Amino acid sequence: MGMEDDILKDFLAESKENLELLDQQFVELEQDPENEELIKSIFRTIHTIKGTSGFFGFTTLEGIAHFAEDILSKLRDGIIKVNEDITTMLLQSVDYIKAIVAELEASGKEPVDTEYLDFIVDLRNFAEKITKGVSTSPPEEKEEAKEETVAQDQDKGEDRSNKTKEEAQAKEESKEKSKEPEKKVEKAKAEPPKAQPKKKPPARKPAPTTTHLTESHVRIDVHLLDQLMTLAGELVLSRNRLTQLANQLNDPEFLTANQRMSLVVTELQEQIMKTRMQPIGNVFNKFPRIVRDLAKTAEKKVQLRIEGAETELDRSIIESIKDPLTHMVRNSIDHGIEPPEIRVQKEKPPVGTLTMKAYHEGGQVIIEIVDDGAGIDPDMLRKKAVEKGIITEEQAEALSDREALMLIFQPGFSTAEKVTNISGRGVGMDVVKTNIEKLGGTVELLSEINVGTTIKIKIPLTLAIIPALIVTSQGQRYAIPQVNLVELVHLNPKLMERDVQKIGNSEFYRLRGEILPLIRLRNVLRLGEQEGEQSEEGMNIVVLNAGGHLFGLVVDSISDSEEIVVKPLGSHLKHIPVFAGTTLMGDGRVALILDVVGITSSAAAGDDAMKHGSVVSTKTVEDDHQFLLLCTIGPDEYFALPLALVNRLDKIKATDLEFVGGKEVIQYRGHSMPVIRLENYLPISPLPEQDEYHLIVFHMNHKDIAFLVSQIDDSLDLAIDVEEGTFKQDGILGSAIIKERTTLFLDVYQIISMHDPDFFTQEELYADIPARILLAEDSTFYRNLLSSYLTGAGYEVVEAEDGQKAWEIFQSDHFDLVITDIEMPRMNGFELTRKIRNEGANEDIPIIAVTSLSGEQNRQRGLEAGIDDYQAKLDRDEVLRAVTNLLKEKTLETAA
Amino acid sequence: MKRTNETLPAVEKKGNVVEMAMADTSQFVTFYYDKHFFGLPIDDVIEINRTLDVTPVPMAPEYVSGVVNLRGQILTAIDLATRIGLSCKNIEKKNEKKEYNNVIMGNREEPISLLVERIGDVMSIPTEKIEPPPDMIEGIDLKYVGQVCKLDSKLLIILNSKTIENTEKKKKNAG
Do B175 and A576 make contact, defined as CB atoms within 8 angstroms? Predict the structure, then answer.
């Protein structure tokens, strides 16, 4: 029961604050009746009270709040206008609510008193009157309302009022669908004789306003904590200065005293910081109960999963996300997860799953609420929005599905067919969005019909404390969030010369066989060059992870790792993508915090080559972004290949080439490596005689092999959009226009196979089980590439250019294994998998998803959809290994 | 910081001090940049700080000199001259370490630090002496000028704190 007590305590504390605010807001409203924001705000407060009291079963409180909300919703929708009577009635409601809250705090129970029930009846009648009044004329409505009050006031006889009450009560029941209506009636019946005559007259006065709402615990203004922390920071700085002095003076007594103070200061700072940080579990832990109760009320079965409860968040943020989260969970259960019967029909487990998870990503805290319910139909949202006059029909048509989903965040938008006790009148989502945006965060909604809905909230780490690495560039210090940090590399000039390669404008470093693009911080920040000295000192590389791919940031020097307090940048500087914020350093100076993802995009935008390159593709599918290596043979033959396949780039002298056994080889790192001249396998002009050639070295199947080219031009991060047509042939995957030149995409695997048919066949990855593979991939480039190495490994491959096509082929043919891309037009990989699993009734056919990025989140989704394995498209060895393993497993199963 | 209300010298000279004191007056924090004399309504100014260490911010708009640490709060430092388009020759040498004074101004949620050369006095000026700006002031973008006041020897340019602190695109207010 501890949990419930906690929630109750929170609820009471919060309600008290809100109620105080309400008084003020109502008065303001009277002066400014047109103020929609004000009405909305009041409405939300009452709505929250209604909702929460519903959980606890405080029927009286819920009743009052319900009808007050009724009136308010009409005000909000502009059906009625604020007048004195309405305000009076609403203020009275607030007074009653206060009285109940006070009683709840004192005894934990609602007050048992007919006075309150009488008021509910009055309120209800009033609400009904004003609604009816709308259809007639406003003045009448006013009078009617007054009459009603007068009638009640006079209290002519118990009988009469009792009757009206009972009638009203009966009506109310049918409307409200309250859980314990009978009890109410009973109470009403049982108590009037003694209670009514005494209590009624005072109740008509602005009810029990005098009730003092006593504070049970101290609530400290976050602002005060902020200031405390700032001061503690200043104290640390003073301490640092003092420590310096102490060291200079070298007085043992002074040193000891200073040391002692130092400890205390550190401790103090830690404690103050702690007051602000809380694990998100403090909020999450309240949900099992809430979910259970909600599910019960909605007659649904819901299982709640909580992940990342230990993620720490600033206190103020935790406070502010509580309500939005509750709203969203309510919505998920109420509108998202289907009743068990329907779930069974849809071939889903009868128990719905609701997952709440929190994690840090890219300097932000991400909270996700995932349900596996009915999902949201964007078309339905469009229709609704038009019906409600939120947008016009043309606007609705112009919206993408994603944008249409965002409609749910519009005020006054409720998608549920019926207004229920739980989710109410479409407040939820607009409140959620407003509150999150107030925190400087964003809300994203992803939904798939019949699969579920994911709400993703991103909250900046403002005020949060993060460990960061301090680096310098051109004398200025910068902080890099440790979450992005992978490793640090220092190169002495000798190593630098050997392992850092310049291709066009870009530099690369070979980190344990992987090619790592390098970005110079001073270039990103446009600080200008200082060529001379850097080569003497070597190079400091900070290897960073930017949303899945690695790059090296070259800085002048690397200092220390420190815990820093993130402070936001002012509005004049917010737009700079490379900075995530600022922080104060020990000496009181400011350091800027780098935004790792921002750096990659900024570096890309600054690169001229990138600008040319971006012409290549208009249809940018994020999924298909790849670093490409561009090279030439002779003056006019341009080629491209994925950088990820390349192990190393090198230069050799023409004299180093040897002819052995009819093949060209070169002495390379202690053994001879075969060298391929592309003109031997492709219809291109031969490699002209040069003193020096460039080598592109691949390491595959535990062997080295290299292509010989005239020149390595550049490397680009590009959306690959390859045309087949004219140039498609063995060894060429297709062509594309890059930097205004027709560039051929090399099929590395096939060229190697052409050169040495046995290169891949003696490997363990070669198909020892012959199999038919269905390959679904929309990008021509990848389709050809995958198909090429799968065929090369001995499999029979049938290609499909999207999920829909694949599904059609799948139905009319037999396959041993399916490989699918995730992002595809018409039908994506997840859907395809589900189709195959469910409709195709193929539980056991292995399905591998391939992607150019391997995101943990996609992997999770994939596994849920029934995908057996997840691989990167370009990682031939891993893909083949996965294929062999899965086929083996399958054979074993069928054998058994 | 000088917050003592000094009477406008010009007013004293004219000898109608009493009359002026009766009339409505507004107070302005004044400061100098190059040869120009500027003022800001006293209500828009939070405090004046002699020198704060400015940390440059690469890729920032030109008028932003960097950020400063004001007792743990990090403020954007805006160079007055560059902001209002003041075309004086010495600005070329901006990179030279020059001591600036910080006028901390704007709203309390997110104040900015305006870098000026020299701080003047706080002046009380009768409202009637304040005029709308002329059609043009040499070397200054009028967008940033709220009003002017003609003094005996010089022109007091009263800056429009709103346009100075607003971001260029006038997009969503932070909050």
Answer: no
Q: How far apart are CA A484 and CA A81, in angstroms?
A: 54
What is the topology classification, in CATH, of domain B6-165? OB fold (Dihydrolipoamide Acetyltransferase, E2P) (2.40.50)
> Which residue does chain A place closest to B175, by CA atoms?
A438
With a cut of 50, say whether residue B173 has pLDDT above it.
no
Which residue is closest to A230 within chain B, CA to CA? B72
Last residue of a domain, one of A576, A606, A636: A606
A272 shares a domain with A389:
no
Closest CA to B110 of A467, A592, A596, A462: A462
Interface TM-score (ipTM) > 0.85: no
Quick: pLDDT tens for A807-845. Answer: 888 888 888 888 888 777 778 888 888 888 877 667 778
Give the separation between CA A353 and CA A329, rounded to whole angstroms. 12
pLDDT score, position A471: 92
A634 lies in the same domain as A735: yes
User: For the CA atoms of chain A, what is the radius of gyration?
Assistant: 35
Count of structural domains, chain A: 6
Hey, CA dihedral for A767, A768, A770, A776, is it positive or negative? negative
- State the pairing for strand pair A772-776/A817-821: parallel
Cβ separation of B60 and A573 shorter than 8 Å?
A: yes
Q: Other CB atoms closer than 10 Å to residue A578's CB: what's the count?
A: 24
Residues on chain A touching B78 (C-beta within 8 angstroms): 572
Domain boundaries, chain B: 6-165
Indicate whether A209 belongs to any domain.
Answer: no
Asked if A631 and A676 touch (Cβ cutoff 8 Å), the reply is: no
What per-residue confidence (pLDDT) applies to A888?
80
Last residue of a domain, one of A413, A436, A460: A460
Domain assignment of residue A875, given as a range: 772-895
Task: Determine the angle formed by the axes of helices A780-792 and A748-755, rounding to 10 degrees.
Answer: 30
Q: Does B18 touch chain A (CB under 8 A)?
A: no
Asked if B23 contacts B76 with a C-beta cutoff of 8 angstroms, the reply is no
B74 touches A at CB < 8 Å: yes
**Which of A476, A574, A576 is facing B59, going by the closest CB pair?**
A576
CA gap A113, A109 in Å, rounded: 12
| CA distance to A365, A435, A439, A464, B82, per residue, from A442 (Å) | 11, 10, 9, 17, 34
User: Predicted confidence band at B128 (pLDDT cuts at 50, 70, 90)?
Assistant: confident
Residue A859 CA: distances (Å) to CA of A25, A419, A838, A867:
49, 37, 20, 9
DSSP 8-state assignment for residue A334: I
Interface test with B, best of A225, A571, A593 (most B CBs within 10 A): A571
Mean pLDDT score of chain B, rounded to an integer?
76
Q: What is the CA radius of gyration of chain B?
A: 17
Question: For strand A671-677 and strand A663-668, is the pairing parallel, antiparallel, or unpaired?
Answer: antiparallel
Please tell me the least confidently modeled range out of A269-278, A294-303, A684-693, B55-64.
A269-278
**pLDDT surpassing 50 at residue A194:** no
Instruction: Provide the pLDDT confidence category of residue A189 given band limits of 50, 70 and 90.
Output: very low
Residues of B in contact with A526 (CB under 8 A): 58-59
Phi, psi (rounded to 5 degrees) for A348: -110, 160
| A497 against A805, higher pLDDT | A805
- Look up residue B159 and give its two tokens: 């800056």
| pLDDT above 90: percentage of residues in chain A | 1
CA–CA separation, B21 and A129 (whole Å): 60
Strands A772-776 and A796-800: parallel
Examine residue A853 and state whether it is found in any structural domain, yes or no.
yes
Q: Given A229, A476, A589, which is nearest B69 (Cβ)?
A: A589
Q: Strands, E, within A315-371: which ranges?
A: 352-361, 364-371
